[in-house]
Amino acid sequence: YAKAAGGNEVRFFQPEMLAEVEQRFALQQAICQALEQQQFCLFYQPKLTNTGLVVGAEALIRWQHPERGMIAPAYFIPLAEESGQIEAIGRWVLQQACLQLQQWQSDALCQNLNIAVNISVRQFYQPDFVELLAGLVQHYRINPAKLTLELTESLVLTDLDDAVHRMQQIKALGLRFAMDDFGTGYSSLSYLSRLPFDEVKIDQHFVRQSDDGQKTRDWAIVEAIIGIANTFGMALVAEGVETEAQRQLLHTSGCHCFQGYLFAKPQAVADFEHWLHQRQL
Ligand code: C2E
Ligand code: MG
Ligand code: MG
Ligand code: MG
Q: How far does residue 60's CA lie from ligand 1's centre (Å)?
């Protein structure tokens, strides 16, 4: 902490820092325990086309803490990424998603569903990441085209050449890639052409700004993203769709696949299956 202040400035240790260190340590211990005691679970949020067809679901991790209740990923994923625990968590998430795909393969209602998993930077650059995926696909005997990995811009930009290389190896296994939260980072649209993405997800930031269905100034960016995705033959999904007006606007602009509270919140698998079943009736 003294070092992080930079320069030659000597900073004395403050009691608040101790509290912070202790808190982070306690959280790390708790994450360890959560893995051992299986306190994590996956929630599923559907991706739907304009005609209401459910094409897949995004798996979103939840921590069901015995005392503190449900904990959102924003609270523990960043620290797990820093401590390295994300590697174990990420493995668990992938394994769980593959098991789910295997179970859905023999379920009439769910057999066509794709599952999307969020991949963190550290997990993606693990030396044995490609082998891990190959092993899971083989072990669970899943159709690899049913598994989508969602990557963020910052992950890809960490080392563009290495990212392209890894993505190509993973694509060779048959998996799909989605660019998550696209449009709010610092990247240019042009580098998308270098990356083998199958899907682009328009960040909720843009969608949220247009909750009344009016085009904001930023909507030009959304239209540019839609144009680029179409040019490269990438599928498009808009995230965070909460109102019918947003859905209409996106549809008019050429985006025909959606995810958001307008349709369904992320739910435990039994609730998700029940939701799907109700829609069929
Ligand atoms: P993300 O991948 O961009 O996921 C979308 C987030 O938006 C989710 O939050 C989802 O619950 C929320 N969301 C979906 N529809 C709506 C909507 O209509 N309105 C609003 N306001 N929010 C909506 P969540 O589940 O809290 O996840 C947050 C982030 O945590 C994810 O962003 C992802 O980056 C990360 N994350 C989640 N699960 C995992 C995981 O298994 N591994 C890793 N590495 N990261 C994960
Ligand atoms: Mg995502
Ligand atoms: Mg997203
Ligand atoms: Mg996000």
A: 6
Identify any residues that bridge with 48 across adjacent strands, giving them in sequence order.
Answer: 54, 258
pTM of the predicted model as reported, rounded to 2 decimal places: 0.93
Contact 13, 2 (CB under 8 A): yes
Average pLDDT for the chain:
92
Beta carbon of 96 within 6 Å of any ligand 1 atom: no
Atom of ligand 1 nearest to the CA of 74: 30
240 CB near ligand 1 (under 6 Å):
yes
Query: Quick one: which of 191, 195, 193 has its CA closest to 176?
Result: 195
β-bridge partners, 148: 116, 176
Read off the pLDDT of residues 188-246 as tens digits, 9 standing for 90 and up.
777 888 899 999 999 999 999 888 888 888 899 999 999 999 999 999 999 999 999 99
Kindly give the distance from the C-alpha atom of residue 237 to the centroid of ligand 3, in angstroms, as a whole number.
10
